[in-house]
From TrEMBL, chains A, B:
SUPFAM superfamilies: PRTase-like. GO terms for molecular function: xanthine phosphoribosyltransferase activity. 5-phospho-alpha-D-ribose 1-diphosphate binds at residues 128-132. Its main location: cytoplasm. Belongs to the purine/pyrimidine phosphoribosyltransferase family. Xpt subfamily. It is an enzyme of class 2 (transferase). This is Xanthine phosphoribosyltransferase. InterPro entries: PRTase-like (IPR029057), PRTase_dom (IPR000836), Pur/Pyrimidine_PRTase (IPR050118), Xanthine_PRibTrfase (IPR010079). It comes from Periweissella fabaria.
């Protein structure tokens, strides 16, 4: 997606430890026009699938996922990262390991919001080690729903997330693939 | 907003302790068509203001805020609830007390994302005691930005949030006002 590549080169910042900060347009400040185009691009790439709903995880996944849901005219569900005191006990839950915080987080979705047999598109902002996506796939398995595919805004192709998901037989569509962040430079794949 | 009232009566659930659960269409599963209309309604109500940006707080504020930002064609910023290890040290920060969890949470926005003199619309899903909105107003004050007004999806008018914000001289636009949740019944104001 060329508009996204341009924005990453213009406004992304590479920090030590292979960190690409896109908080000025993706995950704290949001460029809503770009995010709307991102949602449309996901809808176009998965136009061959009969998507019933989109699943993402709070917080950074919500913006791209809601725009994809708007373009596909389907409901969105987002997994929550800790148990809210007012959340129903009737939940699908899994654990995610975050390399950023070096901690496990409980993640959950109310069972009412994923039906068995539904075809679900998983959307997230980043794919690196694939922990978040694998957690969402685990929740879909518990719900006996089908994964239609995984839509990622920015893939770090030098980390093992895509391989792990493809090894399970699932399709990954990343709008931008980053081959390397070495020497503080963004190198795209392809 | 009639469509929202209907949805609350149809799909909202009243739990003990004056809790109104709208997690099947607002804050876990999202009815994206309704949320798009909510965003347009905020844009219409604040059409008399020159809004520069929208400010909300993760996670439940993001969906209505991004739809309002889409309708108003302005950027969105969301405050984060705890310090991410990769977040810059250059932040505006405040503390919120949550009556739901009975805990204080640190909330922060990167200083790059609110400019002095900007006219900012604050959006959130619920207004009850007003803690979240007051925290966001504190951040705007630190940034020397101007609050254009506060847009709320669902106001619990029997709790003191609106009064507290109006007492500071600010305008509050709530799409739905709830007068009472007594006897597990939703009673709207007006």
């Amino acid at each position: 997606m060329e508009a996204l590549k341009h924005k990453i080169l213009e406004a992304g910042r590479v920090l030590p430890g292979n960190v690409l900060k896109v908080d000025s347009f993706i995950n704290q400040q949001i460029d809503v026009e770009l995010m709307t185009a991102i949602g449309q691009e996901f809808a176009d790439r998965f136009a061959d699938q009969q998507i019933d709903r989109i699943l993402t995880i709070e917080s950074s996944g919500i913006a791209p996922a809601i725009m994809a849901a708007q373009a596909l005219k389907v409901p969105l569900v987002f997994a929550r990262k800790r148990k809210s005191l007012t959340l129903s006990a009737d939940i699908y839950a899994t654990k995610l390991f975050s390399y950023t915080t070096q901690q496990y987080t409980d993640v959950m979705v109310d069972k009412r919001f994923i039906q068995p047999g539904e075809k679900v598109l998983v959307i997230d902002d980043f794919l690196a080690n694939g922990q978040a996506v694998e957690g969402l796939i685990d929740i879909l398995n518990q719900a006996q729903a089908t994964l239609a595919g995984v839509g990622i805004v920015i893939e770090k192709s030098f980390q093992p997330g895509r391989q792990a998901i493809e090894a399970k037989g699932f399709r990954v569509e990343s709008l931008v693939k980053i081959a390397s962040l070495d020497d503080n430079q963004v190198q795209f794949s392809e």
